[in-house]
Amino acid sequence: MHFAYPPRKSSNPAPFRPRSSKLPSVRRSRIRAVAIVALVVMSTLWIITKLFGSRSTVAWEPSGSPPVVLVTVLDGPKYGKAYVQSIRENRERYAAFHGYETLIANVGDYPLDEDSPSSWSKILAVRHAMTKFPECRYVWYLEQDGYIMDPSKTLEERIMNGATLDAVMIKNEPVVPPDSIIKT
After folding, report:
1. Which of 48, 64, 81, 163 would bridge 137 by S-S if both were Cys, CB 3.0 to 4.6 A apart?
2. Cα–chain-centroid distance for residue 68?
3. Cα 82 from Cα 73, distance rounded (Å)
4. Which of 25-29, 148-152, 166-170 has the highest mean pLDDT?
5. How far apart are CA 28 and CA 83, in angstroms?
6. Can you tell me the distance from the alpha carbon of 103 to that of 167, in angstroms, rounded to the nearest whole number?
7. Domain 68-151 carries which CATH code?
8. Can you give the residue ranges of every domain in the chain?
9. Which parts of this chain are annotated as the region Disordered (predicted)?
């Protein structure tokens, strides 16, 4: 026979004794007290080290040796050997003339995922240059399609001079046309 309601709970007590209600609250309050004490101790130590610490807050500035590292990633199979060799010599001559260093890498030099485009090796090459020459002032990435036509001028004269940079810099143009709130 079916009943419309489930049967009532048994009136017999459970075979085990239920936990007292005070124990979890004591644990919670004890954990909370330990956490507050630890926070106060760590805050006090942090304040003491900031007030009486001997560390200077001067920002680290690279020595500038070499002043510039010229980075280029070459795609040998896509272009001919003569073209790649011409680009390599152009970069090395310019760097040697001005006391710069070069880091010329191939697209396959850096491990990439199968889904990643080969152009991501440029980022890894710049990172490699920054690791290899941590004291350099500038890292200049130049595409393999670019050719240095006037090697007599340094990078500082040509681009990094304040007046020259102001003249060629695009200002107040929307990044995402036509009416972007983010402007250059």
Report:
1. 64
2. 20
3. 16
4. 148-152
5. 72
6. 29
7. 3.90.550.10
8. 68-151, 153-184
9. 1-22
